[in-house]
Design brief:
Protein name: PAS domain-containing protein
Structural class: alpha+beta
Shape: elongated
Region (Disordered): 186-219
Biased composition (Polar residues): 186-195
CATH topology of the largest domain: Beta-Lactamase
Number of domains: 2
Helix content: 25-40%
Domain PAS: 36-107
Largest sheet: 6 strands, mixed
CATH class of the largest domain: Alpha Beta
Length: 219
């Protein structure tokens, strides 16, 4: 009888030791994964391009510090968790959604891990930002993205670059811009930017603030 009790005790000790090892391994894996995620975030933060990552629904789950500064914001939570569609115009929403869906179809067709937006072509998108006084204004940026699937959730990671004002003026009358929503990256990047006056009279007779419409292209 004592031998049976001793055997059970030894077995319990072994099982406890194994569970402890598994738990420690799980913790070590989580620590390693967390460290890798932090490293990747640090790399993204160090990249000079503005970086945004969002789901197919439009929900933003990552925005680099450089993007926050460009948008005139200070905290990641001011952007993360919001919809990208809140920061771009309706025509741009349609363009991005279509490009996202097409990239997902291409990913499935090619059975690859990821697929570029618009087949790697440049996209023109209107983007809203705020100036130092908190007023809405427009900037011209170049955006490029890659689509992948994390579990069951389609995601897109995009890099964005601002376009100098003199380049905007120089390229606004370029014939290739007329009616173009995407251009291949081996062509000269050209963008058509317009300003949209959204001034509307309020019930009290005051005027609402203006919002400018920004054209964004992917290089």
């Amino acid at each position: 009888m004592d031998e049976e009790i001793e055997a059970k005790r030894d077995a319990n000790c072994v099982n406890s030791h194994i569970r402890g090892k598994r738990k420690q391994l799980s913790v070590d894996n989580l620590i390693s994964e967390n460290a890798e995620l932090k490293r990747q975030v640090q790399i993204l933060e160090a990249v000079p391009d503005l970086v945004v990552a969002f789901e197919f629904s439009g929900r933003i789950f990552f925005a680099s510090q450089s993007l926050l500064e460009c948008l005139g914001l200070n905290k990641p939570e001011e952007v993360e968790g919001t919809l990208l569609w809140e920061w771009i115009t309706e025509d741009s929403i349609s363009l991005l959604r279509t490009a996202f869906a097409d990239a997902l179809e291409e990913k499935v067709r090619s059975q690859g891990d990821s697929a570029p937006l618009a087949g790697g072509n440049a996209l023109l998108i209107h983007f809203y930002v705020k100036d130092e006084q908190g007023c809405d204004e427009s900037i011209l940026v170049s955006l490029k993205g890659v689509v992948h699937v994390d579990g069951d959730v389609p995601e897109c990671v995009c890099s964005i670059r601002t376009i100098p004002a003199d380049a905007q003026l120089k390229q606004m009358n370029t014939p290739i811009l007329q009616g173009v929503n995407s251009i291949s990256e081996d062509e000269n990047t050209s963008i058509n930017s317009t300003i949209q006056d959204d001034d509307e009279e309020e019930a009290d007779g005051s005027r609402s603030s203006k919002r400018a419409k920004v054209t964004i292209s992917v290089e």
